[in-house]
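Letters spell out the chain; backbone shape is given numerically. Take this protein:
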Amino acid sequence: MSPAFEWNPPASDDAIREGEREYGGPLPPDYVELLRTYDGGSTPGNLSILGVEDCVQRNVDYEVGLYLPGYFMIGDDGGGNAIVLGLRDRRVYEVDMGVMDESHLRPSASSLAELVELGTSLIEREP
């Protein structure tokens, strides 16, 4: 795990089950694995991985299932870009929250584990 993150304590199994109930189905396995260790966290550079309650609410509020079917929002970069997890390829992407269209997705990391290791969003990595 990247030392850049300040992590929250793990999510309880009850909180994860409640999140799945509110979401209407299972949460992505990679995200659930992280939740069992940390219920979200953030870096000084504004990269945030949301805890289960906030994450489910964000997916509902931004209608991710409608505008980006096959993706699940797990966080943001603090600058208007969503961090989304591809449910099929398990890769991490970033997309402007005002656009939320698959044609605007930008690859961010090959996996959630890699994003956590990097500890930065695209805006912090790009020149």
Remarks:
- Residues 6-120 form a domain with the SMI1/KNR4-like fold (CATH 3.40.1580.10).
